[in-house]
Amino acid sequence: MENSNKFLFFKGVPLLSHIHDVEHIQRMQDEFEFQDEDVIVMTYPKSGTHWMIHILSLIYSKGDPTWVKSVPYWERCPWIEIKTNMENVKNKANSHLFTSHLPAHLFPKSYFTSKAKILYVARNPKDILVSALHFRNHFPIFPSYSTFEHFFEDFLQGNVPFGSWFDHIKGWLPMRHSENFLLLTYEELHQNLKVTVEKVCQFLGKELSEEEINSVMENASFQVMKNHILENKELVPAEDMKSLKIVLMRKGICGDWKNHFTVTQMETFNKQYQEKMKGMDQNLFPWD
Ligand code: A3P
Fold first, then answer.
1. ipTM
2. Structural domains of the chain ordered from first start
3. How far apart are CA 56 and CA 119, in angstroms?
4. CA spacing 20 to 30 A to 244: which of 48, 72, 213, 278?
5. Which residues form a coiled coil (predicted)?
6. By the 8 A CB rule, do 249 and 225 touch?
7. What's the whole-model pTM score?
């Protein structure tokens, strides 16, 4: 395993030692009480988390971009597993939006008996792999990977932050039949953003006018987000801002894996996918 020195293992899942705190995560799991009006953006990293945070924020502000431009995303939708993010929540009476990458078995238990809603965004894991390697190699807190092959192996073995993609999705997928869980894909956001935004509104019981929906779409487009995702310059040092923009808003396309995988890697990946996803409804994700 390359570059594992930044990991902290919690119940077998690799987390990030510089931002995660085992005691906090355990406390959240046992004690955090979700309210019925809470909404959580849930993803495996690099699946379109920030895109969905943006869409959700814009739906809540009825398409008005003022909120997304003036308040950083980690304050609008704090990460449950990050202690410093959650400390802010205590001071805000009206915080109902959250984000998380936690696998189901580490998530706060109260969710499973509450009416709080999860928006789960899944993405083609081959594209996640490419996006995640880029993130690792361009974000200063991580040492870079020496080769694509090394990261390819670590990804397939789950030696990456939040562990195996296969375990993450298999842990959460059974929830898709619950009323308070909406399964979405990065690919459907691409294919028809309007239909997906309307689906999210319906799930959340939010009624937006045609004009407001159009504004959500416009302000959640790749180019607009790239320009203002970190608008709040006082909060983010210039250097971090530069690298964050590079890693969070890279290409924003489907199928980029084809530019990176060799034929052998594609075959190895497909074989593992078939083995690990056996028994899962193969029609759920029409990924290539
Ligand atoms: P790429 O690296 O493939 O470009 P996350 O937010 O979970 O870290 O995911 C990041 C990925 O989502 C990046 O993928 C990024 O470009 C993509 N993304 C973010 N906003 C997007 C948008 N508005 N439209 C399309 N893709 C977007």
1. 0.99
2. 4-123+162-238 (3.40.50.300)
3. 9
4. 213
5. none
6. yes
7. 0.95
